[in-house]
Amino acid sequence: MLIAKLTLIMMAKKMENFLDRVIGTNRYLLGKMDFRIALFCSPNKFR
After folding, report:
1. d(CA 40, CA 35)
2. Angstrom distance (rounded) from CA 27 to CA 40
3. Do the Cβ atoms of 2 and 10 come closer than 8 Å?
4. CA gap 28, 20 in Å, rounded
5. What is the pTM of this model?
6. C-alpha to C-alpha distance for 35 and 33, rounded to whole angstroms
7. What separation, in Å, do the N-terminal and C-terminal C-alpha atoms of the chain show?
8. What is the pLDDT of residues 1-47, one digit of tens each?
9. Would residue 31 be called left, alpha or beta, if left means φ above 0 and alpha means ψ between -120 and 50 degrees?
10. How large is the angle between the packed helices 32-46 and 2-30, nearest 10 degrees?
């Protein structure tokens, strides 16, 4: 059971990293305007 849970956690983290990379790449390709929007929106999400 413990190994299965650890495996799931590892897979979830890998997916998160992959999604972060994809989102980051898209943000870079869309340019500076989208990056500014992201910077403006992200503090609101975290608070």
Report:
1. 9
2. 14
3. no
4. 12
5. 0.43
6. 5
7. 36
8. 788 898 998 999 998 888 888 887 776 777 766 667 767 766 655 54
9. left
10. 140
Pair 35, 27: CB distance under 8 Å:
yes
Structure tokens at 38: 């992201």
Q: Which two tokens stand for residue 42?
A: 């992200």
Task: Output the 3-class SS for the chain.
Answer: CHHHHHHHHHHHHHHHHHHHHHHHHHHHHHCHHHHHHHHHHHHHHHC
- Nearest Cα neighbor of 35 from 22, 44, 26 is 26
Q: Which two tokens stand for residue 26?
A: 């898209």
